[in-house]
Each structure stands twice: as structure tokens, then as C-alpha cells.
Amino acid sequence: MTLPREYLGQDCPIARALEIIGERWTLLIVRDAFYGVSRFSDFRDHLGIPRAVLTDRLNLLTGQGILARVTAASGRDEYSLTAKGRRLWPTVWSLNSWGNEFYGSDRPCRTYAHNGCGGTLAADGRCGSCGVIPGPAELTVLPWPDAPATSKPDLVSQALSVPHKLLTPIAEVAAS
Amino acid sequence: MTLPREYLGQDCPIARALEIIGERWTLLIVRDAFYGVSRFSDFRDHLGIPRAVLTDRLNLLTGQGILARVTAASGRDEYSLTAKGRRLWPTVWSLNSWGNEFYGSDRPCRTYAHNGCGGTLAADGRCGSCGVIPGPAELTVLPWPDAPATSKPDLVSQALSVPHKLLTPIAEVAAS
DNA sequence: CGTCTTGGTTCGGTCAATGAACCATGAGGC
DNA sequence: GCCTCATGGTTCATTGACCGAACCAAGACG
After folding, report:
1. What was the pLDDT predicted at B24?
2. Any alpha helices (H) in chain A, and if so which ranges?
3. Is B90 touching A (CB cutoff 8 A)?
4. Fewest CB atoms within 10 Å of the CB: A63, B42, B69, B127?
5. DSSP B24-56
6. What is the CA radius of gyration of chain B?
7. Under a CB-based contact definition with an 8 Å cutoff, are residues A27 and A92 in contact?
8. What is the CA radius of gyration of chain A?
9. Mind listing the pLDDT tens digit for each residue in B11-39?
């Protein structure tokens, strides 16, 4: 039985990469992992993905060593990006940049700030102030200026309504 | 009726980008367009994609202004990347880089050379000699060293068995 | 002991992908 | 003109992935 996800006969690293992360939802899960999302229910609530599909994708990503699954002391499973997963940041950023350039005009969107110098990330991934290309651990995602606080009720949307360092866990938000 | 390709409710440029180029085959078509593939039959032969799906994807990509369709004097349709499509190079490159880093060990793969200085492109997209990050128009794709000339019979594979500048049309290969 | 949360699995229905067959147009040979 | 082939599709039946809703098991909590 051949794998259903396979692009047959493509001796190409792009095809190989897309076999792993090219399925529906997969890169959005990775994006949320960069935001610090780690729990099944938070992925579920933020993405609106069917549970069965989320189970499948999390198993695939952990099986490929992109996410690491740890059962926390509380008994809840937690998922976090491995080094291999964090190497997907250029891909995630390039999609963000392209989507923002060609489809972001109708609505302003989140921006990314370089932790050290406070500069804003430009389309090419460089910090607008100091010119370096920061990795995800050096970035803070900022809400768009006129973000309505009531945009969405889920924990992740609430956590991202204030500046949030990438790769740091989504904190429990105190009831307002 | 909601669009089947939509990620509902995601106010995010990444989700927006994936709605357009996140479907199966789409980014491989874009990759081939960077290689200079322009004809329906060449995409078909190189990718092994079902005709109906290729029709659908080419219509989608031209509808979104990523590819431009021109009916050549010969009567054949030709597809080429627009400026918006060429802005997908960072995404394509990042996937190539990630796939090569984590899944390329079993088999060496194509490398990319910077036209000006001849340096080889590193994983971060920089030219190994001069340090700039070249765009696709400044790159040449090189076959892997021990490439068997008989690897695949289709025109595109043959054209890529010798060094080939990106974005230049796949030339007719003279019979050997 | 009953209820709630978490993290799933199962199931029927729907929709997209697949491969094979069919078709329309235009070019070239004769 | 007539036949044939290449190109660029469309149509169709089958398969498989995605979907939402329902169900389930284990642990926390009262």
C-alpha cells in the first residue's frame, strides 16, 4: 500500500517537504505552535479543526519529530516544537509575508517586533531597525492596533490580543 | 455556499496564503514554473498530476494572478509566473531548504548557484561566496553530480539534467 | 459517588482527488 | 479536401480525505 500523502516519483526536497507539511491544517498547527499553543483543546478552539483531523495531524507531526508530545504532571498532553520544527520558521514567515503583501490590504494584521532592538520585521524577514534576520525566539507578535478585544473568545485569541513572545506558552488569561 | 478551500474565520495572512497555494499540487506547479515549465503537457508529464486537477489548479493560479496565461502564436497555451508569483520564491526556497536538511540525506539533490559569482546557495538562502540573498532570476539550478541521464524521460527532467537558469523556458531538447 | 474537563475514537455523509475514457481545435502530410 | 496527430482540455465512476456530531475513557473535583 502506497502512502496516500505521497507525491510519487518526485526526487525533490520540496515535494518531500510537502508530503509532510503540505496537508490541510498542518502548517496552521505549526504556526500556532510558534505562538506558544501546546494543548489539544487550544489548537482545537483556535483553529476550528475537526477533532479527528487534529489527532491525525498531531500524531503525524510528533511522528516526524516536528512536535514533541509530553504528558504534563497534570495529565494533559502538551505539544511543543522541536529544533526541526523551529526550522520551519522561514517557511511560516514567508507565507505570512506573501499573504500580507497580496491579501492583507483589506485588514491590517499582526506585526512582529525584534525583541532586542524593537524594530518591526519587514517582508524580507529583516528587522527594520538593525537589519538582522531574527529567529522566532527573538520575536514578539503584536496585535493589530485597532484589534477589538472581543474578536474571538478562545484562549489563544485572547493571549494574542496583547504582545506575546513567540515560543513562550500561552498563559492562562484571567477572567476580565 | 462557502468556498471549500477556505479556512474559516482565520484573520491571518498565513491562513489566507494557504487558502490560495496550500492545496495539493499547487506549490509543485509553482516550483515547476520557476524551473521554466510553461506548457500544460510539460506540467502534466513532469508532475504526474491528473489532467482535471491540473486544469483546476492552472485556472486558480491564473485567476489569482500568480500565473499568466498566454495563447502563443502556435495556438498552445503558455503559463508564466507574474511578479506576484515570483514573490513566492522565498516560500519555495524555504521548503526546499527544509526538505533537503531533514529528508535529503538518503540522496543528494539539485543545488542552486548564484549566477553572478558562481557561489552555491546555503540553507538560509544566502550565496555561499558573496553573502547576498539572490532572487530567482539570479539563480541557476544544477543537477546532482551523479545524476543518471536516464532518470526520467519527460522533457522537464531532461532539461534539468544540465544546468538551467531559473525562469528561463524549458528548451526543446534535441534527440540524442 | 456523580459531574466536569481533557483528549481522544467512531460513524455516516460530503466533497475533492484519481485514472481512464472521450472530445474539440488546429497543424501537418498527402 | 481528407486523414492523422498533438494539445488542452471535459466527463465519469471510484476511492479516499475531510467534516460535524455523537460517543467514550481516564483523571480532577466536589
Report:
1. 92
2. 13-21, 26-35, 40-47, 51-63, 83-86, 89-103, 155-159
3. yes
4. A63
5. TTHHHHHHHHHHT--SHHHHHHHH---HHHHHH
6. 17
7. yes
8. 17
9. 789 999 999 999 999 999 999 999 999 99
Length of chain B: 176
User: Can you read off the three cell numbers belonging to residue B66?
Assistant: 500568480
Q: Is the CB of B27 less than 8 angstroms away from the CB of A47?
A: no
Residue A175, pLDDT above cutoff 50: no
- For residue B61, list chain A residues with Cβ-Cβ distance below 8 A: none
DSSP state of A111: E
A110: chain B residues, CB-CB within 8 Å: 12
Contact (CB<8Å) B107/A11: yes
Q: A79-88 burial, b if ≥16 CB within 10 A, otherwise e?
A: bbbeeebbbb
Å: A32 CA to D29 C1': 30
Q: What is the pTM of this model?
A: 0.91
Is 50 exceeded by the pLDDT of residue B4? Answer: no
